[in-house]
TrEMBL record:
InterPro entries: Alkaline_phosphatase_core_sf, Phosphodiest/P_Trfase. It comes from Nostoc cycadae WK-1. It comes from the Bacteria. CDD domains: Enpp. This is Phosphodiesterase. GO terms for molecular function: hydrolase activity. The lineage of its organism: Bacteria, Bacillati, Cyanobacteriota, Cyanophyceae, Nostocales. It holds the Pfam family Phosphodiest. SUPFAM superfamilies: Alkaline phosphatase-like.
Amino acid sequence: MQKTVVLNVVGLTPNLIGKHTPFLSRWKSSGKAVTIEPVLPAVTCTAQATYLTGKSPDEHGIVANGWYFRDECEIKFWRQSNKLVQAPKVWDIAKQIDPNFTCANLFWWYNMYSSADYAVTPRPMYPADGRKIPDIYTQPENLRSQLQSQLGQFPLFNFWGPNTSIRATQWIADSAKFVEERHNPTLTLVYLPHLDYCLQKYGTDTNKIAKDLQEIDAVCSDLIQYYENRGAQVIVLSEYGITSVSKPIHLNRILRENGLLTVREELGRELLDAGASKAFAVADHQLAHVYVDDPSYILKVRSLLEEIDGVAQVLDETEKPAYHLNHSRSGELIAVAQPDAWFTYYYWLDDHRAPDFARTVDIHRKPGYDPVELFIDPQIKLPQAKIALKLLQKKLGFRYLMDVIALDADLVKGSHGCLPPSPDEGPLLISQQTNLLDSSSIQASSVCQLILEHLTKK
């Protein structure tokens, strides 16, 4: 098999490759680039599952970054078990072709308990005293201590939250080199998330994200040259494009105001009570699965959703198959936003009654995706002093709440999830193996086969 590396440069689109990405511009010109027709929703977990299985969400089951677990009556995001992906992965297929094949998965999602030979994924520790301690999960287990002894602790707080930076992406790139030099896998999958942060913060204005583009270009330059010098073929691809947005839509507040969503009060604050609600939305960027407990309410809920400014379409059972979203994990209805809009998870009607986790970075408690976690609340006076005080409490062993995140959805300037307005604003794939790219565009479900062709064709 031909040694192959796939660099997943999140958020990279044709219109972002230019003067701020000199290496990628040259490398693209020496090979061939094709646009990818993304899957709906164009979000991390769904896109990756489609790329790695060659199947659509109706088959692999990853209908979003999170969904409503009906048997538990709980909304869960960012689960990590690979068992949730209900189809064979590219490494399973490749190993059937060649038993000597090996695969390393560096930070692509659903990266725990898979059949990949080598795996590294974020896995913070949560002691009973309330701390969140950066850590990783690895396969084999001893890779965890080897990596962090060599590279230092994984910079979790630079990976997501208001302190995101190139440090996390650089650590991932360095971990890929570490695994390469010790294990020499046939296929290496590397997740490089850096552009995801600035594009959601600032939108697609290249003047505002020039530094971030230069930083990811430098990481790609280093990795591509490193792997090519070791005889590897390199594929650069992205999962989705991010579009500028100016219209946050609070679906759950609208459902609540119409008597459909139920909350539970705890210590003066409100929690979404999904199991007791007639209808609620699980918001994920520009797509929301809307779960309707009683079928007799579906027409009412659909009519309500269709009247909301910024909602482009609402899919029901008859329309979901056209987008391959007819899976038991999907909502009874699916709302898709217009390109300039996105869906919040907010369900409270008074910010004073918002749950305590709303003002923190807490991707697992929140019943929906929250990009506002990228922002320190601008209303906090002397935010660095407040953060320093919180960290001192942590160091002294006191319980603390890092409640520094804004509740202002207007801060978010970029989003994704709906199908892009144009190919230049969508995902792409670049390869030097031009003979394997015989069209200008490919389906997201074709990426798996294209990776296999890189592995097996000279």
